[in-house]
Amino acid sequence: MTGWFDGTASVGTVPPDATMILGHRFVAAPTAQPDPVPAPGFTSRQLRDVMGQFATGVTVVTMPGEDGPSAVTVNSFTSLSLDPALAMVCLRTRSRSATDLRAAARFAVNILGAGQAELCRLFASSDRPSGHQAFARVPHRIGRTGAPLLDGTVGHVECLLESQVPVGDHTIFVGAVLAIEAGSADGPLVFHGGKYFTT
Ligand SMILES: Cc1cc2nc3c(=O)[nH]c(=O)nc-3n(C[C@H](O)[C@H](O)[C@H](O)COP(=O)(O)OP(=O)(O)OC[C@H]3O[C@@H](n4cnc5c(N)ncnc54)[C@H](O)[C@@H]3O)c2cc1C
């Protein structure tokens, strides 16, 4: 029974929602009244500015495709589980890269090195070339998943898409980790407050 013991032995009238056990009166918990949801007191710009204070690494998520591979800059990468080994990235649901990732059902997360801010900008730009053209000047090889693995990173993770969860305007893509490798870069590229740093 959900409720609480009110500490008294029953005397007099017992309310209809009370239960008597060994002379003690238990009363059902009142139905919780939800607090009214407050309207957000911030602008989209303020939200971005505060969220941007969380320093992250930077990755380029790559995936194979029928018209050639594609890639996008992502900092929502997280190591989700060790056993089983799972990793996740979040992509705007209505974006080319989310569509490509769903179609490919596999992807690689290339963790950028300190000297790779240019790659970060390239794969974040909306007018970047697509397919093989996008990688024409980017040294890479093709991994076990068919996704490009960029040279000079601090490491990469190759995943098979395990599940996807649309949340708000983004989708969480969870991948089962198939292969990992440490890279040759000395340290990571760090993104904080809209600027790039090295460690
Ligand atoms: C450091 C860093 C980290 C990033 N991390 C992430 C991340 O974790 N996840 C993520 O999804 N993106 C992230 N981005 C942004 C992403 O790299 C770029 O938006 C990239 O251009 C997306 O490519 P696309 O092919 O998926 O998008 P496209 O579908 O080609 O869209 C390209 C651009 O058009 C604009 N656009 C198109 N439609 C809309 C719309 N409906 N509403 C708003 N804007 C629209 C956006 O500016 C978008 O970037 C990051 C960028 C940087 C610099």
TrEMBL record:
<keyword id="KW-0560">Oxidoreductase</keyword>
<feature type="domain" description="Flavin reductase like">
    <location>
        <begin position="51"/>
        <end position="198"/>
    </location>
</feature>
<dbReference type="Pfam" id="PF01613">
    <property type="entry name" value="Flavin_Reduct"/>
</dbReference>
<dbReference type="InterPro" id="IPR012349">
    <property type="entry name" value="Split_barrel_FMN-bd"/>
</dbReference>
<dbReference type="GO" id="GO:0010181">
    <property type="term" value="F:FMN binding"/>
</dbReference>
<dbReference type="GO" id="GO:0042602">
    <property type="term" value="F:riboflavin reductase (NADPH) activity"/>
</dbReference>
<comment type="similarity">
    <text>Belongs to the non-flavoprotein flavin reductase family.</text>
</comment>
<protein>
    <submittedName>
        <fullName>Flavin reductase (DIM6/NTAB) family NADH-FMN oxidoreductase RutF</fullName>
    </submittedName>
</protein>
<dbReference type="InterPro" id="IPR050268">
    <property type="entry name" value="NADH-dep_flavin_reductase"/>
</dbReference>
<dbReference type="InterPro" id="IPR002563">
    <property type="entry name" value="Flavin_Rdtase-like_dom"/>
</dbReference>
